[in-house]
Amino acid sequence: MEIKGFAVFEAIVILVLSGALIYMNMEQSTVTTEKITSAALSNDTKLLSSRIYSGILEPQSYLILNYEPLQEELKQNIEKNNLTISVYVENLRSGAHMSINGNQTYLSASMMKIPLAILVMKKIERGEMTLDTPLAILDNDKTDTWGTLYNTTAQYLTVRQLLDRMLEDSDNTALNILYRNIDQDDFENLVYKYYGFQSNSVTTISFYNLFSSLYLSTVLEPQDSEYILQMLTKTTFNLPQIADLPEDVVIAHKFGSRYKDDEKYFHDCGIIYDKELRIFYCIMTKDLEQDTAIQVSAYLLNRIYIYSVQTRIDLDNYKQAELLSNNSK
């Protein structure tokens, strides 16, 4: 009995030791696999977007990529009504885009106020002025072409006040004061060399360069790019309301309007923020009466928004159906 008991005990010990060896081999295999995986995902060898690994963008997100149906719809409408209009749309999260007459050039109108604001903020970053720096208002600065600041009796206004009036009210007197206080070479380098504008002519694509520069903060410190975009959400011309967009949709945009002699231009470009949507749009018109240009631009903005939202819903439903199908297998 003692020999038999010892044999049983010996068998148990062997089984335990065998199990431990198997576990150790599995652990070693796991560690080796982890090391291989870690090496494969090192910063030097990662091939996916860094937004995936940082958690900014989830995998299997089904980002909107196809704008061809929207492009065809808008193009048919523009051609049917024989309109001189350019439209550019880009999903800032995926890079997918559509363009109609994207290389058509237009007079810039008030759109140059954004790069001017960027240069003012750049001077602040360099320590050459602050938002509270007072700037003199000269008689030559005053113009009644747009805005009401020409009526002021003040001799000075701060940089902050002038930026607010220029971006929110599109005031041309504020424009003249700020433009007089920046370096002309800096303006030409930024506008013509960096953003790709041509003299006083712009395209919808060149304005994508401008807004994406703000969105990605390629020129300014993040807080200063944020400051400008925040001001652009407060513009007194409310095209989103005319376009019948929901009140909780945020749009940082700038309009430009020039109606003088035979010149008839109206533009509106900006970024739509709705939940996770980040959609850049730019609409430029020529030879339309102002009321007509505004209504046409509002219609186009409405269609851009509706397409983006409905496509997002359709893709989310598809993703959910796929998930349910996989779970049922």
Describe the structure.
There is one protein chain. The chain is of the alpha+beta class. It folds into three domains: 2-47; 70-106 and 219-329, Beta-Lactamase (2-Layer Sandwich); 109-196, no CATH class. It contains eleven helices and nine strands. It has helices at 2-40, 50-54, 68-80, 113-125, 159-168, 172-180, 184-194, 204-215, 222-232, 239-242, 290-327; strands at residues 84-91, 97-100, 106-107, 134-136, 156-158, 201-202, 250-260, 263-274, 277-286. The strands form three sheets. It has a five-stranded antiparallel beta sheet with strand order 2-1-9-8-7, sandwiched between helices. Strands 3-6 form a two-stranded antiparallel sheet. The chain has a two-stranded antiparallel ribbon with strand order 4-5. Strand 8 and strand 9 form a beta hairpin. The longest helix has 39 residues, at 2-40. The two termini are 54 Å apart.
Number of separate structural domains: 3
CATH topology title of the largest domain = Beta-Lactamase
- The count of β-strands is 9
Q: Order of helices and strands, N to C?
A: HHHEEEHEEHHHEHHHEEEH
Main β-sheet description: 5 strands, antiparallel
Q: What is the rounded Rg?
A: 29 Å
Can you tell me the overall shape?
globular
Uncertain stretches: 1-9, 11-39
Which class of secondary structure composition applies to the elements? alpha+beta
CATH architecture of the largest domain: 2-Layer Sandwich
- Calculate the mean pLDDT score and round it: 88
Side by side, the strands of the main sheet go: 2-1-9-8-7
For the termini, the CA-CA separation is 54 Å
